[in-house]
Specification:
CATH topology of one domain: Rossmann fold
Radius of gyration: 17 Å
CATH superfamily of one domain: Vaccinia Virus protein VP39
Strand order of the largest sheet: 3-2-1-4-5-7-6
Number of strands: 7
Structural class: alpha/beta
Length: about 220
């Protein structure tokens, strides 16, 4: 097997689940205007490297995240509990809200804002821990829901559907996160590296195996 094929396989295995499911809906991210809500530090680096033609923006409460943006003006510090999203109506093709909602008390306001800034036909992707995570063992990197003390509440597939529908999104996909490529190839790889090279293992590596995360994709059908 050539190095090129192995590299492509590794990229496919390690691609974040949100992009795997979104690419099934829209095929390419080239020239799509994307807002990553609560982007953190990993997502900007990954997205800008692997989808360089995407027009990627991010907001986060941590202003240090700006160092991960190639174009600094595309990052804005925003406290989602106290501020609206600082963008005009109908601005983005895709809004990502991954592992953010479980930290918020004003979930309804944030989803309403996401609807406002999406273009008609635009997609929102949301992802959060489910109640299953409450009964899982504690682990670095958050396996049990309360490993992260800033978590407020988990979500279910039903609550995600109701949340999106209440803000006029059409739910086009909703389910438990199960990335079989990662389960079959990725998890054995990280266990091997931990045993033989003493590489750390984190709770997030096992989310797909335990089915403790739910996701949904909504589509903005019309402009309000």
């Amino acid at each position: 097997m050539s190095l090129n094929i192995l590299s492509k396989l590794k990229n496919k295995i390690c691609m974040p689940f949100r992009y795997k499911v979104l690419l099934k809906e829209i095929k390419v991210l080239d020239n799509k205007k994307i807002l990553d809500v609560g982007c953190g530090d990993h997502s900007p680096s990954y997205t800008q490297t692997n989808f360089p033609k995407a027009d990627y923006y991010g907001v986060d409460i941590n202003e240090k995240v700006i160092k991960f943006f190639k174009e600094k003006y595309k990052f804005l510090k925003v406290d989602l509990e106290n501020k609206f999203l600082p963008f005009k109506d109908n601005t983005f093709d895709i809004v990502l809200v991954s592992h953010v909602l479980e930290h918020l008390r004003n979930v309804q306001v944030v989803i309403k804002e996401c609807y406002r800034i999406l273009k008609p036909g635009g997609l929102i992707y949301i992802e959060a821990p489910s109640p299953i995570s409450i009964i899982l063992p504690s682990m670095d990197g958050t396996l049990n829901f309360y490993d992260d003390m800033s978590h407020i509440k988990p979500f279910t597939k039903t609550s995600f559907k109701k949340l999106l529908c209440s803000h006029n999104f059409k739910v086009i996909k909703c389910g438990t996160r199960r990335d079989w490529l990662w389960i079959i190839f990725g998890i054995p790889s990280v266990i091997f590296k931990n045993i033989f090279w003493n590489k750390p293992m984190y709770g997030g590596y096992f989310w797909d195996l335990f089915g403790c995360v739910v996701f949904a994709i909504g589509k903005k059908i019309r402009n309000e």
